[in-house]
Amino acid sequence: MQTSPTFQIGNQYRVTRDYTFLNHSFHAGELVIFAASGYSPHEGVTRYWFTSAESGQSNAWHLFDKDQQIALFEPTTDA
Question: Which pTM value belongs to this model?
Fold first, then answer.
């Protein structure tokens, strides 16, 4: 079983590489604010919800149980 990433609600993160799944996408260098997470045992996926610091648009990172965890976000001290 993989270890879940640790995010703090309200903290800002920088996207380290492009990611797209369904209608959710993040772009390298983008600043996002962590909002929430939720796990679906039926689908075997944890969704991590972020809000773009620039546009305010909400997007989710989908991490499936069967997938390897990827380093997609890094904490930032940007205001």
Answer: 0.83
State the residue range of the domain holding 51. 12-75
Cα separations (Å) of 35 from 47, 57, 58, 63, 68?
A: 11, 12, 9, 16, 23
Indicate whether 74 pLDDT > 50: yes
Examine residue 1 and state whether it is found in any structural domain, yes or no.
no
> Any idea what the CATH number is for the domain that residue 30 is in?
2.30.30
Q: Return d(Cα 62, Cα 47) in angstroms, integer.
A: 5
| Least reliable range by pLDDT among 1-5, 11-15, 18-22 | 1-5
- Cα separation, 29 vs 36, in Å, equals 21
Q: Is 64 helix (H, G, I), strand (E, B) or coil?
A: strand
